[in-house]
Design a protein that fits this description.
transmembrane helix, MetI-like fold, transport, cell membrane, globular, MetI-like
């Protein structure tokens, strides 16, 4: 008897919850440090009813969305300039590789010094982290387009920008979407740290308050929400892949 794919996908999370439950049950006096799934669920329901969790999620979503849009836009633009023009590659590629070696989290002190402790440094740190995966994968996608298509474009007398729109962009789209998946994951990771910069709202602020009062159950709720939002972001990109790359055989499977 074949198990439906939807049930198979639930087996992994169910196993993790089971391990968590067993670990919490055997914690004994340390149960406050490692609350069980039932305690975390009860706390999550309480935070939902009070409105704290929805408000925190909305604030965090706004930050990560703004940062990802800025970072992805910058990455795509730089990749197009560098991938389509040799002079663009000469001017852009090396500086981008130098800058991407600088970890976003190490830039937190400078971001505070330059931009203060408001929303701007949080958004800019997310944009910084999300720019480079999109650039690298989009650039690789542009350069991996089969050169025979150039001859096809010339034989059809297509203009340069028409060829870019009809040939280069579709060929680079798989790489761009892979970069977007990496960028969304990095966006949530950087958000966790950036929201520790004197945030007055968001999941990070909720975790900071919970740490001060040793509310590990609230901290677990926030961590689970971060993980769930990251998973939903990844699923969103997977849906985009199925829609935008339906012309590729591997994305036509049910």
């Amino acid at each position: 008897m074949r198990i439906p794919s939807a049930i198979r996908r639930l087996l992994g999370p169910a196993l993790l919850i089971g391990i968590w439950w067993v670990a919490a049950s055997t914690a004994g006096d340390n149960s406050r440090r490692l609350p069980g799934p039932d305690a975390v669920l009860a706390t999550g329901i309480e935070l939902l009813r009070s409105g704290q969790l929805p408000d925190a999620i909305a604030a965090s979503l706004q930050r990560v969305t703004t940062g990802v849009v800025l970072g992805v836009s910058a990455g795509v633009m730089l990749a197009l300039l560098s991938g389509l023009f040799r002079i663009g590659e000469d001017l852009i590629d090396a500086p981008v590789h130098i800058l991407r070696a600088l970890p976003a989290l190490a830039l937190v002190p400078l971001a505070i010094l330059w931009f203060g402790i408001g929303e701007l440094p949080k958004v800019l740190l997310i944009a910084w982290a999300t720019c480079f995966p999109v650039y690298l994968n989009t650039f690789a996608g542009i350069r991996s387009v089969d050169r025979s298509y150039d001859e096809l474009a010339r034989s059809l007398q297509l203009g340069r920008w028409t060829a870019v729109r009809r040939i280069v962009v579709p060929g680079a789209l798989p790489g761009l979407l892979v970069g977007l998946r990496y960028s969304l994951t990095l966006g949530w990771l950087v958000l966790v740290v950036s929201e520790q910069i004197n945030a007055s709202s968001g999941l990070g602020q909720l975790m900071t308050d919970a740490r001060q009062f040793f509310r590990t159950d609230v901290m677990f709720v926030c961590l689970l929400v971060y993980g769930l939002l990251g998973w939903l972001s990844d699923r969103f990109v997977r849906l985009l892949e199925r829609h935008l790359l339906s012309w590729r055989r591997e994305y036509t499977r049910p």
